[in-house]
Every structure is written in structure tokens, then in C-alpha cells.
Amino acid sequence: MLLGAAGAAGTTVTRGVWKWHHERIVRGLGPRVAALTTGFDERYRQYVLATARYVDVKGLATMGFAAPELDDVYVHVGLGPQSLHKAASALVGGEYDSPSRRDIVDFLDGKEPAFLAVVGPPGSGKTTLLRHTARRACDSRKRRRSIPVLVVLREHWETIRNGRSLAHLITSSLGALSAHAPPGWADHHLLQGHCLVLFDGIDEIARVEDRKAVANWIERQSREYPRNDFVLTSRPQGYREAQVDGAQLLQTLPFTVDQVRAFVHGWYLAVERLEASDPLDAVKARSAAAAADLLTRLESVPALVELTPNPLLLTMIANVHRFRGALPGSRADLYREMCEVALWRRNEAKGLPQQLSGNKREVVLRALAYRMMEAGVQVWPRDLVLAEFVRVLRRFTTTQGAEQVLADITSNGLLVELEADQLAFAHLTFQEYLAAAYVRDAHLVDALAERVDDSWWRETILLYAAMVRGDEIVAACLMVGGADAINLAFECADNDADLDPELRRRLSTWLRATMDDRIAMQDRHQRAQVLVVRDLRAAVPLSPSVSLCLEPLSDDVLANTPVTIPAAGISSATASALAKWADLCHRGRGRSVRLPRPDEVANSPLGSADTGQAIWVEDPGSRPFLWWSGDRHPHLVTGADILTQVDHDLDTPLSTAASEAAWELRAALAVSNDEWRFARQLAAMPELAQWRATDEPAFVADAWAAVASAGAAFAGWRLRAFSELASAITPFIDHDRVVTGETARSIRILGLILARAAEGGLRNQLIALTSVITLLEQRAGARALPESVHLAVEKRA
After folding, report:
1. Tens digits of residue pLDDT in 397-408
2. Domain segments of the chain as ranges
3. Residue 558: other Cβ atoms inside 10 A
4. CA dihedral (706, 711, 717, 719) positive or negative
């Protein structure tokens, strides 16, 4: 026994001595190793470039025959400093303390080594970021740290658990290439500070105690080789349980609008180049058209747009669009794939253990989603969530408890903890989809049929109708009636090619019947509401938050709307009222409806053509005013216009005094040929607001009566004459009365006679009034461009 103990002790001492001598030998051979590694370094870089060449698409249900190359589709993953307790863990959304976006290279390869912990929700691009960073390091020979080391932690857990060094891990992971590595190659570069060490996915180590062991091992390696850069990635929850001392915490940031567009165009070009042998120009043209089609379709479905800042979800959307067909018709299939990928597909592809199958996890979440929809909430207390999990888990044979299942699901980003003991789905879309799947599986369509006029259930009903035939839903909508239910019926019919032909006929009959002038006004209003909502669905995106209807409100809508349309045309007040009415029609869809802003019209297809059209627009906090395209304002009345009208007026017998004054004025106009502009909207003239008395003076039916009130002779000009004339013209400007030729002639001649006798500002105001009545006369005779109302749809704040 003594000899055995002595032998064991001797062996231990021998191993310790050998390790000490080995390290001294390796470090002493530094210059020789450096000489030997010159060729191997390049071979190693080529190995890393090949390893990280392609986009990682493991676990996606829909993909092409080959993955695109990473460099062709990579979009900069922005990073920002973040406190760990506020780090976003949901697939979409989250809080971000810093608005600035930094590139990871801004933190690396400095004089002082860096240690970064990059956290982010599932699918936010952490692995892609490390793979691309490794490739960039290979291409930079002048870097301080040009030897990238990419370590997927879950693949090296055994090596780490056995206490092996980072140098050993690197060498052992090279496969066949390790046979060509010079002795001490990895240790030499680590000791010299030549390496950029990238640790991916500490959160993918299953048990918390194992995760902490890995964190401790990483800390030891950073102390053993302190001259290198280290980067560690994790989901926030996994890092909270296994933090690494000394690491600077950074949060991945969601894609911006421009980045979404750049990714879609880059991804489509890469895929088309893989799958087509056409000339490059043809491939580029086809990919650009396909990318534009996807972006346009996305913008018509706000719920999808809100998912695109997550790179993984955006990749899935692009894959489904490219390889499965059109969006948004396949939304239900798309959401199904998103849930599957988040819950189990990615983990299964990575070989991670899963005690509860992915399908069972989804069953648990479906039940929870339906209960939350019934309660009319997006946030539920933790104890109620656990109680629902316990109820569903009783149906399964599993050793996992509700707490374990909840921890597992929240780590995947579909369900998130917003604050202490309050949970919600990462996006309302997932709650609505999972609730629809629960209705399908539990055969609860009757429960949906009772809610077809409830806006809270609208998306769930649409998603259910996309999973199965929508006959029962459409029939229920027709039975309930009402604009909301009928709109839902039409939308279900648009997305269901297999809808019962008899139901389609009934929908068509409903639309035709409401066109009959003999039906009740309430039914006509309902029809207008249905029509305007259908028009709003065709709005063209200007940005992720705003879309614009390129077609104006149709005569069909205007004829049936509850907003009174004056006989003389649309005024600013009318345009504002129409926008408010359309917003009420569109309630419950997460979007608001308003008049467009001038810049939105100018930057849209409406502003690209010199059509001379006039469109009601509105800046925040202002009254509506007219935007027009082209050089000539739609309310421009020139001296030549007045001359034409005065010539026509003189053909009509007038009093001697009026005729003489008109002829004198015509001569003056012919000489000066000045242009008189009235460039403001008809109902928002600041001057008119000042001219109107507070007691609302009575309308002077005969404009010539204003002359009598001021005196037959104009030698004693008084402001009252002008005030009475302004009062006479106000009802025409407000579109309360239609201008006739006789009225226009009377007011025009009177205004010009008064202008002849006036001076300065009053003269200009009288000429402006004359221009107004001339414009209104032209509009009444369809000789001037009418204003139109286009609507903008905006995501609600």
C-alpha cells in the first residue's frame, strides 16, 4: 500500500513537472515556432474562411437547395451598450438605452485587449456576427490579432469539463488540419496576443451549473492569455445565470428599415445567382423585382413588418416568399414555421437536448394564447401562466414541471417576462396565431363565429380561416351584418380560393344591393365603410409605419359617406372630416388613418408625375391645405383669366356706371397683365377669418345691394362696403352655395369697381376676392382642377 501510494504520488509529481517543463519548452521555442507557422497561419485562415463561408440555415423548415454565402447577404449587426437587467430577450421589440449603433470592429484589435459579452434575443444575429467577424479577421493581415478562433461552446463541453486549455481545444478542433500544425502553434499565438477568440452560445450549455463552469473556464483562459481579444455571445437569460467577470456588455440591435431592405435585396440576389445560369444583368433584374415584390407585400401586413427587424424571422419570411409563393396569403404557414423554429427546430438542428418535444411545447402555448385572448389581455401574471401550464401538462407523460417548461420557453424568445411576474408573447401576432391553432385543434369555430364583429378577435379569425375553409366564418359574418363583420367576410373570401360559391354570390349580392338609392341611408353608410376599408388595404407603403392610397376617395364612397359633401366640392373642413370618418372605419386594426403630409405626397408616385393635381394634405397641428404638382397652382388666377371673364361679363347688359367702370378696368388690365395669385386653400384664407364679424353678418343675396349700402356713388369709400362684399362671397368659399354665372358676374364687377376706387392693401384684397369668385365659377363649370382626398395609413403610436 505504501509503495502504491508513493507510486501514485510520484506519477502526480511527474505530470506536474512535465507540464511545467512543457510550457517552458514551448514558450522558449517562440521564435522557432513563429518561423514554422508562417505557412500554416495562411492554411489556418483558409480553413476558417471555409468553415464560416455560408449562412447558417440549420433548423429552417423552408430553404433552397443551397445556403447563400455569408458575405453576399450579411448586413451589419449593430451593437450598443446595455444594462443586463434591461437586455431584450423577445424575438421582436425590447428596450435599448443607447440609440447609437456600433460595429463590433470598433471594440476590437485596439492597443489594449478587449473582452466583450454580446447578448441578444434568439435570431438577432449573434452567431452570424461571430462568423462574419472571423472572416473579416482572416482578410486583415495588418491586424494586431489576425488569428480568429471560433469556438461553438456546446460542441466543446467535454474538452472544457476535462479542464483542457484553450490552446488544446483549438488544436483538437482542427480535424485533419491539426496533423500539419507546428508544435505549440496555438499556444504561441495565444501567448503573443495574436488571437481573436470568439465563444458562441454559452446559453446553449443546458444545465445552469455546467454553464457556470464554462464561464469560470473562460475567465481562466482570459487570464492565462490576457493579450488577446475575447468575445462571448449568449441570450440574456443564459448570461444572467453565468456571467463572466470583466466583460463589457453589448446588446445586439434590431435591423433598421434600410437594413431590412438591404438584406432582402442582397438575399434575393445571392439566391438567384445560386439557382440560375442566366447572365448577371438578367439575374440582377429578376432578383430586384422579386425583392421589391416581397417588400411591397410585407408593407400591406403591418404585423409582418413588425417582425422584420429580427434577422432570423426576416430570413424565414424571405425563404417562404421565395420558395413557397406569395405573401400575405401564407401568413398562417409562416407563423407556424416561426413558432416551430423558435421552439424546437433550431435546437434540434444543433443537437441540443429537449426533454419536452417541440410539438408539446406548442400545445402548451396554444392553450395559454387562447386563454389570454378570452381574457382580452396581452400580459398575464406568472401564477396564472403556470396554472395553465400545469393544466395542460397533465395530459402528457413528462418529468418536466411547469416552472421548467416556462424557463425553457422564455429562453426561446416566444414568451417573455416584461417585468417581475408579468409575462407576454413576444408579439401579439404569435398570441393570435397560437390561439387560432388552438381553436382549430379543439374545434371551437362556434366561439369565433360569435365574435366576428369583435375587433380584438379579428386577426385570430383571419388566421383560423387561412388554416381551414372559411365557410362558417363568412356565413356568420353575413348573418351578423355590420360593416366590421362584412369587411371580415370579404377579407376571408379574398384569402380563401375554396370558399363556397354560394357564399361568394351572397357577398356580391350584398355589395350590389347597397348601391340602390332606395335603400336606407344606414345601409349606404355601411357600404361606404366597407369600400373605404378595402381601399385602405391597397395602400402603397412609404415606410414601415406609413402607407398611402394612390387612388383618391371614389365618387362611390363620397356618395355614400355620412360626411356631407357640399355641392360646390370638397373643402378643407370636408377633407378633414372624411379622414376622421375613415379612421373610425379602420379602428381596431392597429393603424390610424389621416390626410397625408406634404412630404409624403411629394415623395410618392403621386408627386413624381407632373399631373397638376391638387391634393388635400395636413401637417401636424395645422389645418388642411392643398398640395399640387406642376408649376401652376390649381388656384392661380391670372390677369388673362380675369380679362377673359370680364369680356364675357360685358356681353351681359349692366348698368351704365358698371359698364363704364368695367371697360376702364379692362383697359388697365390689358396694359399691366399682372398675375394675381390666390394660392391658399379656399376655406382657410387668413384674411377671410379676419373679415368675418363675430356676429356672423347676414348673407347679402344680391351682391349689388352692397353697393347701395355703401352709397350709389363711390366717392365716400368705406370699409363697410368691403366687409359686406366679403360676407357675400363667404358662403361660396365655404361651399355652402354653388356659384352661378350671374352671381359670379355681379360679385366680380362689384369687386373690380370697388378695387378701382380703393388703394393699397384693400385694393389687393379686393382683387383676391375677385380671383376667388372667378376660380369658383371655373370649378362650377368644370374648367378648373378639382381637389382630391387621398388617405394615409399610419401605425398607431
Report:
1. 776 788 888 888
2. 18-51+76-252, 257-326, 358-513, 530-625, 636-780
3. 16
4. negative
